[in-house]
Design brief:
The chain is mainly alpha-helical. Helix content is 50%, strand content 6%. The protein contains ten helices and four strands; from the N terminus they run αβαβββαααααααα. It has a four-stranded mixed β-sheet with strand order 2-1-3-4, with helices on one face. A hairpin with a 6-residue loop joins strand 3 and strand 4.
Amino acid sequence: MDCAIRFLGALGSVGLLRLLRTKPTQLTLHLYDHCPFCIRVELVLGWNGVKYARAVYGYGDTLGSTTKGLYYGGRTLTGSKQLPVLESADGAPLLPESGDIIARVERDHGALRPASGRPELAEFFNKNGVFRQLQRTLTRGEVIKMTHLMDWARSEDVEYAKAKYEGEGFDYEAAEAAKASSCAEMATLLKELEGLMLSDSSFYEDGQLGWDDVMYLPELRTLSAATGLEWPPKLRAYLETALAKANVQTYFK
C-alpha cells in the first residue's frame, strides 16, 4: 500500500489524470462472418474480454489480391484474399493467420487449456469425414441466402462462392435434393457427438473451455445454418452458451 501511495504521489495530479485516461489499444478484426477460422479468433478474444471492432468483408472482395475474387472493395490488407487479419491502432504490423492471432492473445492474456488430443474428436471432425461432408451438404446452399450479412451482401459474393465450390465438385442442386436424408443422418451424428461431451459446457470433464472447444465450436456454428435439422438439447445448449460468452451469434432462426 505504501509503495502504491508513493507511486501515485510521484505521478502528481497531471500524471494521474493521464494514467486514468489511458485506453487499451483499439483492435480491429477483419473477418468473414461465415469463416470458422475467424470465429476461432472471436471466441478467444471474447472469452478473454478483449474489446475489438469487427470489419466484415464480402466473400467476393479481392482484398487486393490479383488472382482471387470478383471485385475490389477498397481495402488492401496483406495483399492476399485471406482472413482473419488483426489490426492494431498503435501502428503495429497487421497480424494474419488465426493461429498467430490466438498465440498473441494467449501471450497477453494467458494460455488456453491445451487440446486434449482425443482421437475420437479428431476423427469426428476430420475434414474428409462424414460429419464435414454432411455439414457442407446442409449449409453451403443456406449460408449464401444470408444476404443480410456482409459476406453475401453483393451478388458477386454469392457468385464467387458458387463458382469456387462448384469448381471443387460441389453440386448445389444435388445437396438440396438430398436435404431430408442428410438431416436424418446428421441428427444421428449429433447424438453421437453429444455422447462425446465430458460435461454440459465443454469437451473437458470439468466444464472449462479450451482448445478443443476453439477448434470444434466454429464447425458446429456453421452447421447451425442448416434448416430442418434436429439438435440434441445438451449439444445445442452448449453451442449457444459457449458462443454467447464470447458475444458470437449462431445462425439458428
